[in-house]
Amino acid sequence: MKISHLPIIILTIALISSCAKTTENDYASLVNPFVGTVGSGNTFLGPVLPYGMIQPGPYMRYAEDQKSGTIFGFSQTHLSGMAGGGVGAAGDILFMPTLEKNPLETENSKGYSAGFQHSNEIASPGYYKVKLDETDITVELAATIRVGLHKYTFPESNVSGVYLKLNNGFVTVNGDEISGCNNNRVYFTAKFSRPFKAHELAQNGQIMSQPDTLKGENLTGFFRFDTKKDEVILLKVGISMVSVEGARNNMETEMPDWDFEKVRANARKSWNKELSKIQVEGGTETEQILFYTALYHSMIHPNIYMDADRKFRSTN
Question: Sorting pLDDT into bands at 50, 70 and 90, what band is 63?
């Protein structure tokens, strides 16, 4: 009896050893998120987990913005592979760190856009980084399934701040929490790693007198900070297709702390787990990069639609 079980035991050990070896392989290093971002590919290059609900990344309204190096902010949703999609379409809940005294008064304000050099842009599975030219602010992004984590490194300034834009819906500021809904479909909750010293909300470019909530179209906000040289301010953004409460619960469940490097490392671990399901040997390094990048792109959509508590909104 004992001898007859020996092949099964050996086989089990072999399978465990094989799995252990697989998880050590860094398949994410063979993914190049920039593949497909030039021309008509329109692929998304920001951080996302496999089939993740949230996809924070640079918002560029047209293909020309990608070529010229102009970012209009960092939105929480994108549609990869569609015309304008990887860099533009969706574009819900847009944040932009900036240096500006009155960024809400005009659409020509630097608070709406910033130039960048592609040489100052880095992307890998679960991570994105770019340096903005005009303000010398560095933006880094990471994500869990339903929560984006923004990391802004500011220069020394007394006009530092973060700009918010919603197409339509509502926005509420309650203490240190910002919440609302964009396009009547994506709810969100956001918090900074330190209190902002002041804030303003505006509708159609007109600053309102410190309301708790604004509703309607073309809603904007600005959250002000004083910053020292190379000071880091983090921003958590949780989203939900159900409610603000769902977004808040997603954020508290998936990102209870402010550890950017942990979020980044966990995202890479998730991608290595998924990418290791197909193990390719042989070929050139370029061919392996193209294969694993294509496999990575196939897992950006469709997106998880339910919240951490398993609630979701019916499509009807």
Answer: low
